[in-house]
Amino acid sequence: MNLIELLITAACGLGAAIAIMSMAGLSVLAERKVCGALQGRLGPNRTTIPLLGDIPILGRMITRIGIFQLVADAAKFVFKEETIPGHVKKFYYHLAPIVVLIPALVPISVLPFGSLDGEPMILANVDIGMLVILAVSSLGVYGTVLAGWAANSKYPFLGGVRASAQMISYELAMGLAILPVFLWINQPGSDAALSLSSVVSFQETHWFVYLQPFTALLFLICLFAETNRAPFDMAESETDLVGGFHTEYGAFKFGMFFIGEYAHIVFGSALFVTLFLGGFNFLPMFASPWPAGVVGAVLSTLWFVVKVSGLIFFFIWIRWTLPRFRYDQVMTLGWKVLLPLSIVNLLVVMFILMAITPVNA
Amino acid sequence: MDIFLFYFLSALTVFSAVMVTLSRNTVNGAMYMVLSLIGTAGLFAMLGAYFLAALQVLVYAGAVMVLFIFIIMLVDVDAEEKVKIGTGSLIAALIATITMSVGVFMLFYNPEWNQPLSVIVESSSIEAFGGSAKKYGALLYSKNILPIQVVGMLLLIAMVGVILISKNLFTSSTPEEVSEQGEPTES
User: What's the pLDDT score for residue A350?
Assistant: First the structure.
């Protein structure tokens, strides 16, 4: 591989990381706006930057939407003084935010996000895409655990322990909930393996969300638990743990946790869209209308982003609607309900597949 | 470039493996072990066994070691204490080390093995050794079905054993015993 190829690859990776981080930033804003709407408030609508906000109609509109609030938040994270409490374990205290953020940004590289002339656009079209995603995101739990432990005080520690137990528990059910999808696309004769682009091309006519609705539901629940999102936000349940594992963090490091959390949500939504909602395909039973060339690529990517935004909205909606589970309820749900259900689901799908596939295929 | 990557990954793997045994702090040790496992996964990937590499990260680095760290933090083994090594374990360690080193050296100086991997293993069969999920699975569940069954049985036995021990079916529980939460059990 020569230098130019290497540089182009690096630039693509950087672009993907920037895309997912800006999506994360926008979903922070969406969270506040949607939360406001659900509670009969307006949400952030007054923050403004002097000259930009004074542009006749546009400036006022942007102010109302709250885009400047995003800038203000980011500026606060960057410019706030970094205080490091005296009792923390220094090395791991500095390491933890990085370990949270990086696994949240990496897996986007194996996700197909658009189609160019019928070919899926993807940074690394690997055979084992799904496995890469599971592997990389399973490393993210170290960040949470180390943050809780390095803080060296009680509440963060409890938050870290809870988070790790929860993530390990739901990883199992999640893996089992994904298997039926890949069983379905790997019917005899196909060479799909575990690649996500073949999942998307399979869904050109039928989406998995109605081929396997129960699998989709199981996966969605596990996704909520894995992203540490309400009603599963045990790791940082502020009513009993102050701020959970990141209590001792402030300024930029807290910002990294924050962006990492929302990047997880964005990526989780994108993964759900890819696996069950047809990825960049237009609508079930309709042929994708994307024209050839760059226009089609842009349109399909935009359609993918629209779907992902819809799912992010769903995430936020759930958070401000449902109350938080108790910790023992989370564990019971994971081990005694979701795990057996996903095994049964796998078996049922296997028998259905056996029934519908011709014997001597 | 490949050769640099190979040396980097090997150095990472070996260095962190050594540090696992040398570090006094248990959390440091566990983190070094994670690094070592990730380095091994990188080596697998360089051999073309991508499936195995991903499994290595997913199962060992992502799940097993998280449990290790989880337990280390729960029982809070911060206090480092020097453990006297008994004569028996010293002799056992020596024998193990010598056997291991002799084995490794014999492998290295065996002319049959001391040559590029592409000579020993045809590139077509790398896939079956963990390059693609399908071929790996096919090999695992046809030719190697007996070892798989044996390993499965072993895991089942271990699981039943763990449940027996944690339920205290054999020993009458004593007040000193601590439960999972670090608090004395009420019994």
Answer: 87
- Chain B: closest CA distance from residue A14 (Å): 21
* Bridge pairing between strands A114-116 and A119-121: antiparallel
ipTM: 0.78
* Cα–Cα dist A289/A300, whole Å: 9
- Identify the domain containing residue B7 by its residue range: 1-80+126-132
Residue type, A216: A
Using only C-alpha atoms, chain B has a radius of gyration, in whole angstroms, of: 21
The CA-CA-CA angle for residues A187, A273, A350, to 5°, reads 25
How many domains does the structure of chain B reveal?
Answer: 2
Average pLDDT over residues B157-186: 64
**Domain of B28: which CATH number?**
1.20.120.1200
**Residues of B whose CB is below 8 A from A135:** 54-55, 57-58, 61-62
Full residue range of the structural domain in which residue A277 is found:
85-356
pLDDT in tens, A92-122: 888 888 888 888 888 888 888 877 777 777 8
Q: How far apart, in whole angstroms, are the C-alpha atoms of residue A88 and residue B17?
A: 27
Residue A267 lies in a domain: yes
For chain A, the residue count is 361
